[in-house]
């Protein structure tokens, strides 16, 4: 057995250098499939977080970075995108070992990150201000967009590199600098990515990475006076805490939080395609996705038939080693999350829901942190299994009669991240996309996202938008400039 002293050790990335933790302490990072620790990451503290923020502040205030034109920043982003694609296989292998996601999916995700950075590379010099026609004579007014400053980026364990790129690419395009704190469960891939910033030519201190626990590093970043904005993806409880801390100093935030998304199938839908959409919505990535379609709303006339089709589709799904290309569902990423998922299965059974598929752990596979794809029918929307985010391969099936009831059930939840509608009726599709309270609504598909399209939630699913043109403005201040052409100042006691 490998001792902790023999495991490879990572370091923080601060001011362009690899820096050991000031405390000398490390955290093991484990492979969810084998259950074995394979590396150690720094257990950062407030001193490490402050050092990273100070480096980012120096880089923002003086030196090469603020002197660069937007086009020059864009060229650095483009180069970084190319380097990510060149190193995609290596980065994906590290992330797979950290969070147990399917290798085929992680490789595709990392390669796609290159497009995120190239998209914002092209956008960097296309944020256009405007001349404002005003009702005041003798003045010329226009807007300027200016980088906010140091951005704290805090990401979860389910897709650490992808979710970092959603924030980092627009922040850098805007001219900000960044300190990244990945989840303590999945820090290794981000520390590997950090080595590419220097290769891409970014000035020292523009991007920094500090790893560790939320209360010891994350809170220090959120409350640091030089941090102007926080970009966070994670659970609603942590998001609420970050929002409260940020509000004390009037920092801005983008929060991409939880979901309990309705996947709504009408009786006129192509049921075979809708079955695949239901599977993609909840069982892809073992359900460990904020946009998971964890509530399947079925029109009553097709309920039993659709459930039968879904069970048949899933009964031979292969669970196992995520490195094996034949595997379709991998392990739960962390031990606490594994136990949480099982607890919700027990809750659903106690609430009276009927388990028609799965419902068990699979201790015979790998480390044992596998949960069978699980489907519950007879679910009422007021049950906890229908209202609370499970973040695992657990599907709640709810029957409805008509459009009005589907809308009511779909919206009757604290979250509003995503929704989907399956129908051949264009009028119905348009009605549902208008009435559903969600930041993304898919029609006859599920789980599609793009660097070109905004993503974010309503209600407790978050604040702000990531991706698309809208995202870059999350990292910019809007300034209005007034220039007088009058030779004489008018009456100073009267507002102009």
TrEMBL record:
- Where, if anywhere, are coiled coils annotated? none
- Which residues are in the Aldehyde dehydrogenase domain? 22-481
Q: Which UniProt keywords apply?
A: Oxidoreductase
Q: Where is the active site?
A: 256
In alphabetical order, the GO MF annotations are: oxidoreductase activity, acting on the aldehyde or oxo group of donors, NAD or NADP as acceptor
**Pfam families per the record?**
Aldedh (PF00171)
Q: Which domain of life is it from?
A: Bacteria
- Keyword Acetylation on entry: no
User: Which family is annotated?
Assistant: Belongs to the aldehyde dehydrogenase family.
**By what name is this protein known?**
Aldehyde dehydrogenase
Organism equals Piscinibacter koreensis
Species lineage, top-down? Answer: Bacteria, Pseudomonadati, Pseudomonadota, Betaproteobacteria, Burkholderiales
